[in-house]
Write a structure and sequence with these properties.
The chain folds into two domains: 36 residues, no CATH class; 178 residues, Sandwich (Jelly Rolls). Helix content is 16%, strand content 38%. It contains two helices and ten strands. Strands 1, 2, 3, 4, 5, 6, 7, 8, 9 and 10 form a ten-stranded antiparallel beta sheet that branches.
């Protein structure tokens, strides 16, 4: 009896250990330190800043600006070739936002620390679309947003999440960008956040968009400015309460088959030792 009890205890300990090992830690980029933990001495002005691109490559995260291009093609419709136009996004070498210090007055205070990621439609840091790539696919994404220093606050943010093959996993659209609160304090689920059981390799963000915001929506003319802070990402199970689920299925994540074989072996071993003890008794 003691042997069986000990086996059960060992199995429970194994399950707890496996759970702790597989529970990923949420990674947060607060734009106050780089991927090595070194403090970022951000400038006050865009004229002294450099675009954010590979500063967090050490954390497996890459930033790039995107350009919207209109693609016209001939497609058959009811036996007749029809001209259709669609918008596509592709990476470009300029327009990505930059890290600024909130002492600039562009937006302050920061959501955390002293720095934030800023975009300004009146500068070269003013792309309407940008992308965050992840070396290791994620299941949970979140970033705070707020309006910058411009007087106009009636524009929206749109997010598209894609898997490694470029398939759209899901979207969060028509997220209003206000002037009086960070999105983490927003209402009715308007967080710039989501989770998905389908792994996400990159997220495209459109901002300074009109209502109905997506790649086809109208873009805000200058002046416009938007600030982001506290990018957080992890696995599906790490998402905080209230984050929108893009998944179509449930939330159960099965253990890998190899783990089940290992646990089954432990149970079988414990049962065999118990039978041998009873036989020799």
């Amino acid at each position: 009896m003691n042997k069986l009890t000990n086996t059960q205890l060992a199995l429970s300990a194994t399950l707890l250990t496996f759970s702790s090992l597989t529970q990923a830690v949420v990674t947060t980029i607060n734009f106050d330190t780089d991927s090595s933990g070194a403090t970022i001495n951000a400038p006050d002005l865009f004229s002294s800043a450099i675009p954010l691109t590979e500063l967090y490559a050490g954390s497996g995260v890459h930033f790039s600006a995107l350009e919207r291009k209109s693609i016209t093609s001939q497609v058959p419709h009811n036996g007749v070739l029809t001209t259709r136009t669609r918008n596509e996004l592709s990476p470009i070498g300029s327009g990505m936002g930059a890290i600024l210090n909130d002492s600039s007055g562009f937006r302050g205070p920061a959501q955390s620390g002293d720095n934030f990621l800023a975009f300004n439609g009146e500068t070269t840091f003013g792309s309407h679309f940008w992308r965050i790539n992840f070396d290791n696919p994620i299941g949970y994404f979140e970033i705070d947003r707020i309006r910058g220093a411009d007087p106009d606050n009636n524009y929206y943010t749109h997010l598209d999440a894609y898997d490694a093959d470029g398939n759209l996993v899901g979207s969060r659209n028509d997220l209003w960008t206000g002037s009086n609160r960070w999105a983490s304090d927003d209402y009715s689920g308007y967080w710039t956040a989501f989770k998905s059981e389908t792994e996400i390799s990159y997220v495209d963000i459109g901002h300074a968009l009109d209502w109905g915001g997506n790649t086809n929506s109208s873009l805000r003319s200058t002046p416009w400015s938007i600030v982001y802070d506290d990018l957080a990402f992890g696995e599906f199970a790490d998402a905080r309460s209230g984050v929108r689920d893009l998944s179509t299925g449930g939330t159960f994540i099965p253990l890998p088959a190899s783990v089940w074989f290992f646990l089954t072996g432990l149970l079988g071993f414990g049962s065999l030792r118990t039978k041998r003890k009873l036989t020799t008794a």
